[in-house]
Amino acid sequence: MLLSRLFRSLPLLLLSACLGCVPDARAAPGIVGPVVVDGLSDAAAQRAGVLPAAHADLRHPAHSDQGRILFVLASSKVHGSSTLPASISFGEVVHAWDTFHAAGYAVDFVSPDGGEVPILDRYVGKDMEPRRKDERIMRGLRHTARPAQIDPSRYRAVYYVGGSNAIYGVPEHPVLQRIAMHVYERNGGVVSAVCHGTAGLVNLKLADGQPLVAGKRITGYPEEHERQDEPYFKQFPFLIRKTVESRGGLFHALDGDQAYIEVDGRVVTGQNYASAKQVAQAVVDILRRQAARPPVRGAKKA
Which parts of the sequence belong to the DJ-1/PfpI domain (predicted)? Predict the structure, then answer.
């Protein structure tokens, strides 16, 4: 009797064993499971506010994804053709990221070369040092997207980060220029910058060929505040105030280190490091006003 029951159960045992040998459906061809990024799923990384470009195809349209801000950073580790070290301004990233994140916006990072951007210790104040352990931000700064990976239809605003390297590689990059102007003209979005990040605006042109800054109130880090007798200054390919004015912009700056911003339509600029939070908040305010009325599409100039 016992042997008979064993023979009757044998087919069930064999079926169970075979089922146990079937690969996980997530590994089967044509079925893709969650992408894992440094221990986080892609969904968790997006909730944290950033998904590294190495694990996300940012080129595909995401028309339901209306709450993203694109941070534009420079890749250069040196000033011009010298060996003088250069860096992004870490605090200008953090203060703006905190403001956008608190307002419910996700942030992506792009740089001319993609990958990790330079952060020099001297550009990280004591108050910012603990944030170097904040993986929500650091993961994005280690894995910035390349410009070709970016789908500009995803973004409500671009934010040009300053730092000593912001004047190299970003202002002349044609794909970054097209991204910014798509966000501004086709998405009806905001173009913003802080400190040396204003260098990224000087070559932007509207569809009619006019400079974006023409006739607009603009601020940024002016050359009169630079240490002009230092070797780094001799590497600058252009001067921010002089170039903005040559493009028809109305450049304003204050003496001293106090925060100062200019808001002219959908262009927001800040003079210095202390202005980063105010720039981000001004961008949020504009986007909230837009959200209270039908979306603007195909705006030519504002």
Answer: 92-283
Domains in the chain and their CATH numbers? Answer: 44-291 (3.40.50.880)
Show the tokens assigned to 220. 């940024």
Q: In 3D, which of 264, 92, 78 has the Cα closest to residue 184?
A: 264
Nearest of 289, 60, 71, 72 to residue 154 by alpha carbon? 60
Residues in the chain: 302
Q: In whole angstroms, what is the distance from residue 158 CA to residue 190 CA?
A: 6
Beta strands in the chain (DSSP E): 36-37, 40-41, 68-72, 106-110, 155-160, 190-194, 217-218, 250-251, 261-264, 267-270
Tokens of 160: 């040009």
- Chain-centroid distance of CA 299 in Å reads 23
pLDDT one-digit tens code per residue, 146-179? 999 999 999 999 999 999 999 999 999 999 999 9
